[in-house]
Give the backbone structure.
Amino acid sequence: MRDSHQQERSLQHRQGESVIVAAVITVSDRSAAGERADSSGPRAVELLAAAGLAASTSIVPDGVESVRAAIQTAIDSGARVVLTTGGTGLSARDLTPEGTRPLLQRELPGISELLRGEGAKHTPMAVLSRGLAGIAGRSEEAQTLVVNLPGSVKAVEQGLAVLLPLIPHILEQLDGRDH
């Protein structure tokens, strides 16, 4: 695997030396209420920044509308990559996929399957994640990769190890460049 400096050069080079904007949205009732510190969102931002992306983070409570609104805000703000962390499990409040799905023009089930498969190498519980991946955006010129990751730091690290090498090619395809 390439080191983060090589990956950063690759991401910037493939995007014409411009920085890719990414948004990380932590979905957690407790973190949104200030009852628990968010650790997965900042870790995702750290890994994205090390790969050369300009990443920011926000926290929203669990729920369909809070997730949908946060993703839409990130898209409207120009994010080319939106990652959510949390809310992909089985509890009644885990509604991140339900908030994400209405925004997706096209799902990318292979990415979701790959993320679950990689996670299952570390814990069998990873197969319980209902996270989605897909393309959102209103026009061909402004399409965004959206991926739901589980809420643990380890799941974010494992997920980004899978996603970071794919992002340049995905964005090139969305921009109508190389296949």
